[in-house]
Design brief:
Elements: E1 4-6, H1 8-20, E2 26-33, E3 46-55, H2 63-78, E4 81-89, H3 104-113, E5 118-122, H4 124-127, E6 136-142, E7 145-148, E8 155-156, H5 161-170, H6 180-185, H7 194-214
Parallel strand pairs: 1-3, 1-8, 4-5
Antiparallel strand pairs: 2-3, 2-4, 5-6, 6-7
């Protein structure tokens, strides 16, 4: 498998999704930087720049999922991004495997169109450890099933990702996250979560300033 890295916003949104619905299974899709994608290539490096929370109720490949994926793909193409994977978190605290995750048909549909796709499982046990380590597990589709890859190695494009996400959780930002279940209940809600992206950008900017000040 090629190297997989995540931007702060991508990691934050999937963690916030799980934190908003701790009593539910959750899922969503991963978007990669399209400028770094080689058409038809397998096992290529992926820079996951964003995630789109899908559901906490409607996990299966249904008309609602088809609508969601169509809208996401349209947005991704406009921003030169590609749907490059899937994430999910299980309802049961002890279930942290692909086999127990919801919506696997969605993940299989994604990998049919993008062979280098990855499956991220949210690790519930790590999620409650104050984010001392990344609370996710990476998987790659091979030989007809999702197989774990580099379980203990998660790369981030920017520093202070875990600290940023911890800060967001402490502020209760997960309450503001909108998934497609929320959007379908109220079409005025923003499923792109632009407000959260702006907040993360502001926090990242503050961290950068602090780093520069410490260099003097």
């Amino acid at each position: 498998m090629g190297e997989v890295s995540l931007e702060t916003s991508a990691y934050a949104k999937l963690i916030l999704h799980a934190a908003k619905y701790p009593h539910c299974a959750v899922n969503g899709v991963l978007l990669a930087d399209g400028t770094k994608i080689r058409s038809g290539a397998k096992n290529q490096d992926l820079d996951i720049v964003d995630t789109v929370p899908l559901f906490h109720h409607s996990h299966y490949l249904s008309p609602m999922a088809e609508i969601a994926l169509t809208q996401i793909e349209t947005m991704a193409q406009a921003d030169n991004r590609v749907i490059a994977g899937y994430y999910a978190g299980c309802e049961n605290f002890r279930d942290n495997t692909v086999e127990k995750c919801p919506g696997q048909k969605i993940a299989e549909k994604i990998v049919e169109h993008f062979p280098s796709a990855v499956f991220i499982v949210i690790d519930n046990k790590r999620l409650v450890q104050h984010l001392e380590t990344p609370a996710i597990k990476l998987h790659k589709f091979a030989e007809g099933k999702w197989k774990p890859k580099d379980a203990n190695k998660v790369l981030f494009q920017t520093p202070y990702v875990l600290e940023t996400v911890s800060h967001l959780l402490q502020r209760g930002v997960q309450k503001d996250l909108i998934d497609f279940d929320n959007y379908l209940d109220d079409l005025s809600q923003d499923w792109t979560n632009l407000g959260i992206e702006k907040l993360i950008a502001s926090i990242n900017a503050s961290n950068s300033i602090d780093c520069k000040e410490k260099d003097y």
